[in-house]
Each structure stands twice: as C-alpha cells, then as structure tokens.
Amino acid sequence: MIHILLKKNTNEIFPIFHLSMASSLRKTHSNNSVNEYGKFNYYKFSPAPVGPYVIRNRLIDQSDNNLIFFQDSDDIPCYDRFATLGNYLKTMDCQMCGSHELRIDYYKRVVQAIRFPLDVKATLNIGPHFALLHPTACITRNAFYDCGMLSEERKFGNDTKFLLYSYFLLNRIYNIPKFLYIRKVHPGSLTTSPETMLNSPARRNLHYQWNYDFEKIKCGLISLRNSSLVPIKSPLNVLKRKC
Prior knowledge:
single chain
C-alpha cells in the first residue's frame, strides 16, 4: 500500500509534504522505499506506538503546505483526489472538505459505494451525526491550527472529536460529491479490533460524552473550552528521528 501511495503522488500537483513510515514495516521494505522514492521524507517516532494523531500533528508542524490532506495508511487515494479536493476548497471558499468513499469490505467480500452529506455543518446542525469520513478530508493549514490540531490523548477516535470541535470554529465544511477515496475494512485495524472497533464499549462511551457535550454547547449550557471536545496534547515525551 505504501508503494501505491508513493507512486501515485510522485507526479501529483498537490504533493504529500511528509510521509511517516510505520515502525512495523520490515527494514528491507523501508530501505527500498527510501531508495526508490527519495523525494519524500521518512521518520520514526518513539516511544512506539505513539498513535496516528501525534505523528500527524508533528509532521504538519514541520511542513509548510497551505493545504493538509488526511489519509489512513491502509487506504488508497483515487488518481485525482488531491487536485480535486484542493480546487474544491478554493472554488467553494470552504475550510475543510471530504468526499464519498469506495469501501472494500474484507469481511463481506464486497465493494460498497458510501455517500456522505454534501453540507457537513447543516447535517451537524441536526445532531452529532457521522457526516464526514476524516481520512477523506482536506483542510487549510489556518483552519487546522484554529481547531487546535488533533487531540493526542488516545490512539483512536479523535478524528470524530476533531470534527465535532471544528463545527464550532469553521464556517464551511463540505463533502465533494465524488468518490475520491478507497477504504479497506479488514481484520487487525483499529476500527475492527474488539477493543477499539466502531461499536466497542470504549468508543460508545467516548461518543456518548462527546455527543452530550456537543448538544450542550449548541444550547449554550456549557462553553466549548470547558467541554470534553477540547484537544489534549500527548503526555509522552515524543521523539522524532529522520531515517
């Protein structure tokens, strides 16, 4: 999957600014990627695993691109994803946008076309619904920092927390009506492992707390800064080393 992503972005007009190679990759694979795709940067983080949100925040801090594209390491961008999202942000004058997804389900052995609402904020006005798939999204650098970056206190679920928090700070959040993202649902991922899967007790408890605070903020009963949606930095002393 890493090689597909690198080949895809070698000639992309919106290039990825940094790439973090997972520490679980075999050393030969990492060395081959460094040699074959030398224009990208590779890093190792410790103590491992620090989780995806810490890694993304640190690399975004180091980059200078005006646009930030999220993506999970198991997934594949469609050929025109970066250019299409970048142009859409500019044309629609919005601060964050995602897209529909093509879902490859290894359990059901099917490919599904999953659509999301076009106006994310209008959907969230109704309630804290699953209105945007975080790894499909592109956000402006200013908007990302205005939202306090990604919360780092856990290794799963904080993309949902980020969306709910951003609702109160961003003016326009959309989904582009195109299928630009290919997502894999497979054993061993954070969204399918028993302890962290989408319907696990841990996720249900988090969503209950976040959704409850989300509605209380909308009703003026608590402030955003006093809610459970506030981003939290990792307590770990995270070290980053370039390969």
